[in-house]
Amino acid sequence: MKISSAEFVMSNSNVAHCPKEPLPEYAFIGRSNVGKSSLINMLTERKHLAKTSGRPGKTQLINHFKINNNWFLVDLPGYGYARVSKKDKKTFQKYITEYFEKRRQLVCAFVLVDVRHEPQPIDLEFMEWLGTNQIPFTIIFTKADKLKPASLDTHVQDYLRKLLEGAWEEVPPHFVTSSANRTGREELLDYIEGINQEFFRANN
Ligand code: GTP
Ligand code: MG
Fold this sequence. Notes:
204 residues; binds guanosine-5'-triphosphate; 7-stranded mixed β-sheet; 5 helices; single chain; alpha/beta
């Protein structure tokens, strides 16, 4: 899929105020610093569309970006970031949870995990919560450029094997990406295009 336009629409902390248009929407969720905002910029080829930072806790609101005038990418705050105050952390959790529970046009949650790390309890808990709430999700391994090609596949297969040893009976859809060298860009955009087509067929 070609990206012909990508524009910031709005930021807010209340799902009730999110855009009303019934367009398919993809949300990026995962631990702080995993690369959610960077991946949005990589996919759209706009360096500064979503705000990124080397320090965790950069994204603090629900941010809507409208792509090609007919679908949305949503950048969310990271979970599990210890340095925000307890009160703020609670607020994030509440509106992130509300966003996922209430957002009807959400067609897929992209759960980002750093490809270098073993499955973390907070990610597993979040995936289980999505499963329980019947919210479709896809795992996106990030920062693939940080591993040598030979160990990349081993890390991915180990991660997926551990999921199967846990709560999951089948391997969820997954992609390996790098915002630094654009690994996975075409594959992920084609995947989104397929889901968009299904959405518009079902809703027209
Ligand atoms: P929060 O908004 O704080 O939750 O973080 P985030 O998940 O949006 O992460 P962000 O995109 O801001 O990136 C965090 C840091 O990781 C930045 O320093 C990025 O440059 C770096 N980073 C993100 N993706 C990649 C990647 O694919 N490769 C490498 N090498 N660095 C990356
Ligand atoms: Mg961010």
